[in-house]
Amino acid sequence: MECVVQGIIETQHVEALEILLQGLCGVHRERLRIHELCLKSGPNLGLVASEVRLLCDLEQTEPTWTVRHIGGAMRGAGAEQLSVLVRTLAESKVSKNALRLFYSLGYKLDHELLRVGFAFHFQRGAQITVTVSSVNKMLKLHATDEAVPVTPGIQLVEVTAPASSENYTEVVAAVSSFCEYLAPLLHLSKPGVSTGVVPTAAAAAASLMSDGDEDGDGKEVVWHILLSCGLLQY
Amino acid sequence: MPIKWILHWQPNAGTTVNSQILAEVSQCAEGINGIKEGRWKATISFYRAMTREQANANEFPRDFLGISLAEQPGKYYLVLKGQRLVVEAESSIQMIMEKLQSYKTRVALNFEGNQYQLGDFQLRVGKVAPMQSESLRGIVMEMEYLPISSWEKSHQIMGEFFDLWQEALSKRSLPGHFVHIEPNFSEFGLSDQYTSQHTAVQYASIMAQMIATAQSVQPVRN
Fold first, then answer.
1. Which Pfam families match (chain B) (predicted)?
2. B87, B100, B189 member nearest A46 (Cβ)
């Protein structure tokens, strides 16, 4: 299982978000360049239609492949009240010929994407990952070098954390509370529930990018912005 | 990693495999000073496409195998022998296959038995039985040579050891013999350096052979 929320941010404010994240997480970002292939079962295969994703991390010297299956979201009145989506997720690292396997089994390429950006991995009540990426599409099959942005000027922000049926309430709380720190720059919500960009983003970004940061690690401006939003008190 | 040959027992025409043969083979391993070192186990699952209409089943591969090996407990191997394809995955791929509901396990076979050490060689003799059943369907043997990982370079010494083994076993006048099938690994994109993917391909090859043998003995049921 995983807990997930998503949001969008204008590319011009990404640098400010990075400074904020750097200050909040205290870890360095990792570069991200992921080729994602979404495969769907052919018309006669399976009792129900199915979908699986193949991800290739192009940042690695030797690209590594992962098969990912995103299952259904948790349902019910309790789940609806949560501000974070809880869904099943299964992943398996695979050898590079996995695409050929799925084609041979009767799966077809539905679409492919290239996500370019960065990620922060850190422990904060849960093992949280924040990814900030521009989503690109390929004009030619698998031509990752010629990818163009799907939404120019807008980047996708995703906050995820692994969870289990035993601990998901704690993980949801940890993710929700972390998202509050990012609120001045972007609003995060369940996938599929678009909330657009936030009006305070420009002012918050300007504050973050100002000269208040003496040692360049972003901490001072993070404190400043959190204080100004009422998330921290003296 | 060390190379190994996977061999399977080929019964003589008109005979079938039985537990007495398995016991004799194990005794033979001990008779040539093999030191019993414990148990080993491998599992092979036969996947079959799930289709809304039976008529569509032929569109999809019928030789799709999933293999787990004792030598790589966290890994799972998916083999399509007809397509000359072997994929190495983490064990969690089994859960993904279940969730996709596009292929299901039709039959699963256990391969398990004892392991013997003979100097630089390791022998693993085991029975083949359907999961949740004790009925013996075949006998397999893994013959591993620890110092060499090149398939080509090990060929001579493996051949010589296999001859010695056959000679020792022939004294027991058993109704059959072990057969070594050598798959063309390069067709699967595998190099001369031995890996667990080579082991998976060998298991897929002996399965095809064992099924062919079983079908030649018993009339094929529709």
1. Med20
2. B100
| Contact criterion met (CB below 8 Å) for B76 and B42 | no
The beta-carbon neighbor of A100 closest among B61, B85, B96 is: B85
Is B62 near chain A, with CB under 8 Å?
Answer: no
Q: Which residues of B touch A50 (CB under 8 A)?
A: 99-102
Token pair 């657009």 is at which residue?
A196
User: Using an 8 Å Cβ cutoff, are A198 and A187 in contact?
Assistant: yes
Question: Which overall architecture, per CATH, does domain B3-217 show?
Answer: Beta Barrel (2.40)
Q: Contact at 8 Å (CB) between B103 and B50? A: yes
A185-189, B56-60, B169-173: lowest mean pLDDT where? B56-60
Taking the C-alpha atoms of residue B105 and residue B67, their distance in angstroms, rounded to an integer, is 12
Q: 3-class DSSP state for residue A214? A: coil
- C-alpha B104/C-alpha B91 separation (Å) is 16
Considering only the top CATH level, what class is A2-228? Answer: mainly beta
pLDDT of residue A193: 78
Q: How much of chain B, in percent, has pLDDT values that exceed 70?
A: 96
- Residue ranges covered by each domain of chain B: 3-217
Could you read off the pLDDT of A30-49 as tens digits, one per residue? 999 999 999 999 999 998 99
Q: Is the pLDDT of residue A99 over 70?
A: yes
Distance from CA of A1 to the nearest CA of B (A): 13
Distances (CA, A) of B65 to A12, A132, B152: 50, 39, 26
Across all residues in chain A, what is the average pLDDT?
Answer: 89
Domain residue ranges of chain A, discontinuous segments joined by + = 2-228
pLDDT, tens only, B136-152: 999 999 999 999 999 99
Contact between chains at B102 and A105 (C-beta distance less than 8 A):
yes
Hey, what are A28's tokens? 């360095």
Number of inter-chain CB pairs under 8 A, A vs B = 92
Mean of the per-residue pLDDT values of chain B: 93
Residue numbers in A near B80 (CB within 8 A): 101, 104-105
What is the ipTM metric for this complex? Answer: 0.92
Would you call B52 and A52 a contact, using CB atoms and an 8 Å cutoff? no
pLDDT category at A201 given cuts 50, 70, 90 is confident
Q: List chain B residues with CB under 8 Å of A88.
A: 99
Q: Are B175 and B24 in contact (CB under 8 A)?
A: no
